[in-house]
Specification:
CATH architecture of chain B: Orthogonal Bundle
Order of helices and strands of chain A: HEEEHEEEHHHEHEHEEHHEEEEEEEEEE
CATH topology of the largest domain in chain A: Rossmann fold
CATH superfamily of chain B: MetI-like
Shape of chain A: globular
Distance between the termini of chain A: 48 Å
Largest sheet of chain B: 2 strands, antiparallel
CATH topology of chain B: MetI-like fold
Helix content of chain A: 10-25%
Radius of gyration of chain B: 24 Å
Order of helices and strands of chain B: HEEHHHHHHHHHHHH
Distance between the termini of chain B: 40 Å
Largest sheet of chain A: 6 strands, mixed
Number of helices of chain B: 13
Shape of chain B: globular
Oligomer: heterodimer
Strand order of the largest sheet of chain A: 6-7-8-3-9-10
Chain lengths: 410, 288
């Protein structure tokens, strides 16, 4: 392999600020496997990726989560080398990648539709990269067999690609990428084409494989459950920018922006105006007249600011209204409503409650998780419930200019 | 009752095909084969025999021309592929959408005029008093008029030009069906552009290449106009010999024998080509 920095940097391709920094770190302690600094890609007028900076620690599973069209594929293709950033810098193991073509980068990619070569059998597919490097035949055979064994498919070298099942193809694609011992494995929604059951299985499998290989994985997906289950760190991307980078728990319990709060996990969303504030705590009146006590998620919010407030379904406690409201009276927020629908789904069962607020009939609906005590097994449509949630469970964010309307919810 | 109705509609649907096959293909060939096995022993009297075929092997001019035609046709096929492949790649993968359609149409436009007119176009360019000759003199690269017509190169140019579309169409079809991510994946795994071409693109395009090559080869082998007009008297194209037998010498027996030999030759070379490329005729035809 070429030593770090052996490939010449293209002059004039980086901003001056970046050139002034040291290009090749001397020690390899704490050199991130991947470092992106102010990476931007513009297509015509459209900023597909807009000033994204992040680092990925060696041996970690890093996911980029975002809705389709958020720029995550563009970002991944820049890391792989299929696209050059309009500005900014990408470094892999401390080595600047500007101007380095994909076939010279220490990166392998697992494609969305896997891109296994139908004209070759499994063994030739997995050995493809090694053949390009001119590795001797005997060693290719040995390493191919080893890679296939590690993904749990020993001895299938002579099988044709069409003969494999979806899950097997998945693992062959990973073996094909991993046999090259890349510094970084990029995965472009490789589970998207699988059916639900297999996808659930492969999530766990991928995580195990990543731990087994010890290679850094950068995984992009629009499926939050894939990102949450597998990743050490997740970056939530929207409109070409990173909204938040953090552990899955951080994203779920402490979303930094309204977008993250709405995109990661389910949440009831209220849009309104701040009435009074008390440090971080606020009282807001929603557009449909509900008074909600919440806490500002980030900066303090001044009275009069338009806010979006998110409440997780499982943060709402419920009690049958007929049994008295003692169970919910202590909480900061409470409301009465009638059961609109029971969405039974085992442990993830929900109830849709239509709130009766300020004398309005047919007010907004709230999505509430049903406690798994069996107490509500006979809940049925039309029953009255009293709901309550703590002010801390309601996180308020300054309203987005282009945010969805009230009814769209999260 | 119902069964009979189905039978009738099936026969009706089959009729054009059956008529076409028997009247236009099977009958003339059978008749020609019978003619080719006739020997003229006197005025108006014929005997059965193989002498027409023997003549072919005894006369060096005949089988030399025969071989020459075969080799030139193979060469024309290879050249057409070498020129047509980049064109097809550009249309299928680089200039997508409207530009791709426009380029495709540009390949088709020469076929809107008759082959005769197209060939005369080349003659205007290549002849002694033609465009290229004048240009060379104007640039001072030649002292006098240059004759570019009536040689093998001129025949080759004409053949490639005539067959280009038949190579480009199947190539564009197969290349369009090539998933770009296969190319990217190969590139990502360290393959050079040459390795991507050899290991991914060509194996994928093989059915298109083979079917294009078969059509171009047959067209070149059976071409009459282009070799005669661009190659002149010395063109020595086998179809020219067949024409001579039928029209000039009025020796239909010999002409038929030559026709059958040409048929055998083209079948043999196509078969060999399919064997070499590991394709079956059925696969190849299904892909185009």
């Amino acid at each position: 392999m070429t030593p770090a920095g052996a490939l010449p940097l293209r002059p004039g391709h980086m901003s001056e600020r970046l050139v002034s920094r040291e290009e090749v770190p001397v020690s390899n302690v704490s050199v991130p496997d991947l470092e992106c600094r102010e990476v931007t890609r513009i297509f015509g007028e459209f900023r597909a990726v807009d000033g994204v900076s992040f680092t990925v620690e060696p041996g970690s599973f890093f996911s980029i989560l975002g809705p389709s069209g958020c720029g995550k594929t563009t970002l991944l293709r820049m890391i792989a080398g299929f696209l050059e950033p309009t500005s900014g810098k990408i470094a892999i193991k401390g080595r600047d990648m500007t101007g380095v073509p994909p076939n010279r980068r220490p990166v392998s990619m697992v494609f969305q539709h896997l891109a296994l070569f139908p004209m070759m059998d499994v063994g030739r597919n997995v050995g493809f990269g090694l053949r390009q490097q001119g590795v001797p035949r005997a060693e290719i055979d040995r390493r191919v067999a080893d890679a296939l064994a590690r993904v749990g498919l020993p001895g299938i070298e002579r099988r044709r690609i069409e003969e494999l099942s979806g899950g097997q193809r998945q693992r062959v694609a990973i073996a094909r990428a991993m046999v090259l011992e890349p510094d970084l494995l990029l995965l472009d929604e490789p589970l998207g084409a699988l059916d639900l059951k297999l996808r659930e299985h492969m999530k766990v499998e991928l995580k195990k494989l990543q731990e087994g290989f010890g290679t850094t994985f950068v995984y992009i997906t629009h499926d939050q459950s894939e990102a949450m289950v597998m990743s050490d760190k997740v970056a939530v991307m929207n409109n070409g920018r990173f909204e938040q980078v953090g552990r899955p728990q951080d994203l779920y319990y402490r979303p930094a922006t309204a977008f993250v709060a709405g995109f990661v996990g389910d949440a009831n969303r209220f849009v309104g105006k701040v009435v009074t504030t008390d440090g971080k705590g606020i009282v807001a009146r929603t557009d449909d007249g509900l008074e909600v006590r919440a806490v500002a998620a980030a900066d303090a919010l001044a009275p009069g600011t338009r806010v979006e407030i998110f409440v997780r379904p499982e943060a709402v406690r419920m009690a049958r209204a007929a049994a008295g409201s003692d169970a919910t009276a202590a909480e900061a927020n409470h409301a009465i409503g009638t059961v609109q629908d029971v969405l039974f789904n085992g442990a993830n069962s929900r109830v849709l409650v239509r709130l009766e607020q300020a004398g309005q009939r047919g007010g907004r609906e709230m999505d509430v998780a049903i406690p798994q005590t069996g107490e509500y097994a006979d809940l049925s449509r039309g029953e009255r419930l009293s709901l309550a949630w703590a002010a801390e469970a309601a996180r308020a964010y300054p309203a987005r200019a282009d945010g969805p309307s009230e009814e769209a919810g999260a | 009752m119902r069964r009979r109705e189905v039978g009738i509609s099936l026969y009706l649907l089959m009729t054009p095909l059956v008529l076409w096959l028997t009247l236009l293909i099977i009958l003339p060939h059978v008749a020609m084969f019978v003619v080719s096995l006739r020997e003229r022993v006197g005025v108006g009297t014929y005997a059965f025999g193989l002498s027409n075929y023997l003549t072919f092997f005894q006369e060096p001019l005949y089988w030399n021309t025969f071989l020459r035609t075969a080799i030139m046709s193979v060469l024309a096929t290879v050249l057409t592929f070498l020129i047509g492949f980049p064109v097809a790649w550009y249309i299928a993968k680089i200039a997508r959408g409207r530009l791709g359609q426009a380029l495709f149409l540009a390949c088709l436009i020469p076929f809107w005029v008759s082959e005769l007119v197209r060939t005369y176009g080349w003659m205007i360019l290549l002849r002694e008093s033609g465009v290229f000759s004048s240009l060379l003199q104007f640039l001072g690269l030649a002292d006098g008029p240059v004759e570019l017509l009536y040689n093998d190169a001129a025949i080759m140019v004409g053949l490639v030009y005539t067959s280009m579309l038949f190579m480009v169409v199947p190539l564009v079809t197969t290349l369009e069906s090539l998933d770009d991510s296969l190319v990217e994946a190969a590139y990502d795994m360290g393959a050079s552009s040459w390795a991507v071409l050899r290991e991914i693109i060509l194996p994928h395009a093989k059915p298109g290449i083979v079917s294009g090559a078969i059509v171009v080869f047959m067209l070149s082998l059976g071409n009459y106009l282009t070799p005669i007009l661009l190659g002149g008297k010395s063109s020595l194209w086998f179809t020219g010999l067949i024409y001579d037998q039928f029209i000039t010498r009025f020796n239909w027996e010999q002409g038929s024998a030559f026709g059958f030999l040409l048929l055998a030759l083209s079948s043999a070379i196509v078969w060999a080509g399919l064997r070499l490329s590991g394709q079956s005729l059925r696969d190849t035809m299904a892909r185009t």
